[in-house]
Amino acid sequence: MEEVGSKIIRLRCLRAIYERQVVREDAPAYLDGRRYTAPAQVYELFRDLSKEAKEHFLCLHLDGKNRIVCLDRVSVGSMNQSIVHPREVFKTAILSSAAAVLLVHNHPTGCTEPSPEDKEVTLRLAEVGALIGIRVLDHVIVGEGYYSFTEHGLL
Prior knowledge:
The longest helix has 17 residues, at about 115-130. The protein is an alpha+beta fold. The chain has a domain at about 55-145: Cytidine Deaminase, domain 2 (3-Layer(aba) Sandwich), CATH 3.40.140.10. It is about 25% helix and about 25% strand. The protein contains 3 helices and 5 strands; from the N terminus they run αββαβαββ.
């Protein structure tokens, strides 16, 4: 028996859905399940980004032992820029229970020198991460080689 004037209330429910993606087919065995403690390791895993025609901004979610638990492709931009907002970076990091994150993006031109915008967004993400308890360990720019914000004392 239906009550007169009753309504059905529908709300969207959020569920984390994970899928597996191949990021490197010929990866050295030592990268599997390894702790990431150096920017060169990140570059070794994602050096193929240097072949992309557009900027890709990735966020690697790490557990408490600096092992990758998740990869989030935050943004795919144009030839020389991608849009990155802290909300987009950290919403998935929170869902995956990340202890820390590593930021990775490519410069299709091959030059790994960070732009003023790269520096600005990195510092902003580090500030937001500190507020919510998810450390930004490094930001690695991939091109002809790599640039590490940590190695250069910018993080």
